Sequence to fold (422 residues):
Amino acid sequence: MFKKIPTILLLVSGLISVVWPGAASAQKGENPVPPTTGAFFSGEYRNMLKEWGLSDEEIQARVEQVWSQLFYGDDETERIYYPVDDDMAYIVDTGNDDVRTEGMSYGMMIAVQLDKQDEFNRIWKWTKTYMYNEDGPFQGYFAWHCNPDGSKIDEGPAPDGEIWFAMALFFAAGRWGNGEGIFDYQAEANAILHAMLHHEDDPSSGSKNMFNAETRMVVFSPSPYGAVSMHTDPSYHMPHYYELWARWADDDNAFWAEAATASREFFKTAAHPATGLMPNYAEFDGSPKPAGDYGEFFGADAWRTPMNVAVDYAWFAADPWAIEQSNRIQAFFYEVGIRTYTDKWRIDGSASLTPWHSTGLVATNAAASLAATEPIAWEFIEEFWNEPLVTGRYRYYDGMLYMLSLLHLSGQFRIYEPPAVS
Fold:
């Protein structure tokens, strides 16, 4: 039976944080050894928290505590999940007071991984009811952000939302089976994939495909306005998801296999050869894409890249470069100060651009341990385990990345194969 862990509240830099009691000590001096066969093939998901020395009970208590706080905690300072009526719910970006496809898709993925079908269905129904574009230039895509009352702020889509929606829906089909209407999860996933690649089939649609046909890479935005469809966001690259779509999608299977290969090669050009840092935005050749004071730097979008690279290796072990990269980026953050490193950098590491040590980055740097082979990987896990879970206004993004990393590091983020369709 779950027993809530007692917490201590600290006020740091205007943010209330939760301090976990009884943290373990790091496993010093031992080199972690990633499996040479990916979890997709072996069915074995590494529990690095247990390898580090935590008990099953300690790990499960943390998972349940974080779920409880993010989904059912205090309305003003803890939760980000808010039920609406009897059958819908939304995830709010508390820093911006809006609802984003990013957060909704993350919420669905967390729910399917933890076998929470009611919460999954509620989030998905809100998404389809309010965020889906039934007509107009973005027909078939989801508006990337809305107000909590469901009104659209911008009808344009952000491809990472579609990517995570499709993957969560396939997993839902595998874990729970398909229902009817919008709860025919597999059909909904395939519809999303079809829209992502075939929007331009109708010349009158106006908007672009979500993947560039020539490079096989995800675009920053399929909007027809400006040149936003002519560059990419490294954190949107999810080769381990594309690998699954190559096997499970109704069509375009060869394209998805090629997209997985393209993203793995792209990572090599986007990551700085010394630091491992990737920019928030990049050209298709991997070079940084300037956009104000954000695009060319390693920042909040790019925090997700250490996790994406490592999880791709954990699931498919397709390219040992992922090991080099995971070691490289951990070495950089270790050298600049594992307990104090800041969250925005020039990608060559020559300048730190903020004073903040952010929980979300601590979490994804720990997730990089899934593909790391240096002893410092255990120290990144220690830092993650001891890291306070942010509450207060800016709890949304840090909390989401914390939970996703927690599921990966505890071996609870798994592949659920959907039923075969004849």
Remarks:
- Residues 80-230 form a domain with the Glycosyltransferase fold (CATH 1.50.10.10).
- DSSP finds 14 helices and eight strands in the chain.
- Confidence is low (pLDDT under 50) at residues 1-17, 21-26.
- Residues 143 and 155 are 4 Å apart (CA to CA).
